[in-house]
Amino acid sequence: MIRARRALFAAVLGALMAASPGAPVRADQAAKDFLDAVYKTYVGKDAKGVPIDSARFAKLLTPGLMNLIAADAKRAARRREVPNLDGDPFVDAQDWEIASYTIDVQDTAPGKATALVKFRNQDEDKTLTLYLLQINGAWRIDDITGADGSLRKLLARR
């Protein structure tokens, strides 16, 4: 019994020490894996990426961001114009040929993370910041910013 209590005390003490303010915070590996599954579809010649009109695309975004994209497309169709989002938001381009990418994820709060994605697309270096939210235990993209600003702000333009 005493041995079991000592083992329990050691386990609790170890967990407390690992969670202490001085301990480094490990970025959420699940968020990085989520983004890696997205970006690996953009690598290589003739890579297909994630089509904007696919069910998979909608599952990668928060409902709020997906609603903004749908409203932008609907508004453009009514006016017979090109939508504000006229390229692929994951690569900030209409065409791509990407050989590799890097992803650095930082936890910002419980259920929130920010990711820096870097790649070279057709001789142009790109850095995108993706803002992630965890919804029902799954990571979703809530905004993307690049050299031209925020995707949410772009979609809000009338």
Could you characterize what this model shows?
The chain has 158 residues and is of the alpha+beta class. It has one domain (26-156): Nuclear Transport Factor 2, Chain: A (Roll), CATH 3.10.450. The chain is built from 5 helices and 5 strands; from the N terminus they run ααααβββββα. A 5-stranded antiparallel sheet has the order 1-2-3-4-5. A hairpin with a 2-residue loop joins strand 2 (112-121) and strand 3 (124-135). The longest helix has 17 residues, at 2-18. The relative contact order is 0.16.
- Level-1 CATH class name: Alpha Beta
Q: Would you identify the regions where 5 or more consecutive residues have pLDDT less than 50? A: 1-27
- Oligomer description: single chain
Most strands sheet: 5 strands, antiparallel
Report the mean per-residue pLDDT as an integer. Answer: 86
- Write out the strand line-up for the largest beta sheet, numbering strands in chain order: 1-2-3-4-5
Radius of gyration: 20 Å
The backbone outline, from C-alpha atoms, is globular
